[in-house]
Each structure stands twice: as C-alpha cells, then as structure tokens.
Amino acid sequence: MDSGAVTVARTGTVRGELVLRESGGHYEVISNGVFLMDTRAGESERLLVRAALDAVPPGSRLLIGGLGVGFSLAEAAASPRPAEIVVIEIEPALVGWHRGPLGRFSAGALDDPRVRVVTADIVTWLAGTDERFDAICLDVDNGPDWTVFDTNAQLYGGDGLALLRARLTPGGVLAVWSASASPAYAARLADAVGPVETLAVEVARGEPDVVYLARQKARDRV
Ligand SMILES: C[S@@+](CC[C@H](N)C(=O)[O-])C[C@H]1O[C@@H](n2cnc3c(N)ncnc32)[C@H](O)[C@@H]1O
C-alpha cells in the first residue's frame, strides 16, 4: 500500500470496509484491510483476458470474475472477438467508482452494449445460473492461495473447479490470475478442467504474476 495515498472514498459492507485511495493520479482498492488492486500496472490483468480470447472463436461469450480497476474489462471490450461480456463484481460501491475516478481505467467499457455488469458474489452466482461461457476469466483474489474473503476459497477447490467447468461451453477455457505461482492449484486445475498453460508476467515488486489457462478436456465436449 502507498503510505502517501489519501482516501477518496470509503464504504462499509457486510464483508468489512472497502476503501479507494489516490496518490499521484493513481488509485488503489483496499478490501477489509487487504490490498486488492491498483491502477499502476495491469499487464497481467490484461493478459488474463487476451490469452483467453485468443483461445476461443470470434463471437464468444466471456465471463469476467471481479471488476477491480477495470483493466481486464477494458482489454475485453477493446477486442472485437467477444459478442457478450458478463462481469460479476461483489462490491456495488466499486462499480459506482467506475462512474467516477476509476472510469478512465475501464475506458468506457461499462457502456459497451456487449457488457453486462452483475453485482453478486461469484460463488453463489455460479451455483445459481445455467449460463455457459466460451471463456471464464477469474481474478477475484490475490490468487488461489491468498483469497480476499474466506468464502472465495471454495472457488479453488474441487467443488469450485467443478462449478466453473460446468459453466464452460465444450472446449471452453478457464483463465485464473494469481500473484504468485501455485503448482498445487495448477495440478488441481489440470485434473478438473484440462491441459494447463502457465503464463508468467514479471512485475516490479517481487514474484511474477501468473495466469493459468486451462482448456476443457475433450471428454467434457458434447
Ligand atoms: C484483484 S481485483 C480484480 C482486478 C481486475 N482483473 C482488474 O483488471 O482490475 C478483484 C475484484 O474481485 C472482486 N471480488 C472479490 N471477491 C468476489 C466475489 N466473491 N464475487 C465477485 N467479485 C469479487 C473485488 O471486489 C475486486 O473488485
């Protein structure tokens, strides 16, 4: 976290406090004391979407888990490839901040007619929908081993992986963002979904960011 940053918005939620801080024209989002995302980089968050879209045909349906500062959504909306982009974001206040200070980072994508933003917990939303997607991009935590909320841990275990796989179209891809490598998760992902490609992005601070890209196994195709 930037110690010189000033708080520009703060809201209480049932999950704790959500804070938006600004420093030098950049913003950071803190959820219940845990750093979630800032606007300084974004390369791996864009790669998450680009790698997934490169793996599916034009006209595809894309699901993005976690709006954050909007880098992933902006990357998706900049591409002609997806016909539909559904974003699931748990924090209504954060969606509202994209009508204000974060708007330049999502680059108007919320007004793209292909985009639908749903304010919901993706864990419960996935369990309650029968929608299917050609690509699912999951970036709601700092990674499978460092979740923002305890309940998000469900997404990375066997039941969560089965839920995500069930929401893929035949041959669809699941891309998962992580702030550090997680070989155990990659193995679970390969087992539950299909062959995994691991993409690493060097970052200024510490360990590279990682994007895991899994393509659904042939046995799941119908
Ligand atoms: C690391 S940020 C996403 C970064 C995003 N890829 C970007 O480009 O800015 C994680 C986002 O997921 C949201 N989130 C966390 N848990 C969630 C959940 N269970 N369901 C939906 N959204 C969630 C957070 O509020 C936050 O906006």
UniProtKB/TrEMBL annotation:
CDD domains (alphabetical): AdoMet_MTases (cd02440)
GO biological process: polyamine biosynthetic process
Annotated SUPFAM superfamilies: S-adenosyl-L-methionine-dependent methyltransferases
Keyword entries, A-Z: Polyamine biosynthesis
Any single Pfam family the record assigns to this protein: Spermine_synth
PANTHER family per UniProt: BLR2883 PROTEIN, THERMOSPERMINE SYNTHASE ACAULIS5
Identification of the protein by name: Spermidine synthase
Gene source species: Catellatospora bangladeshensis
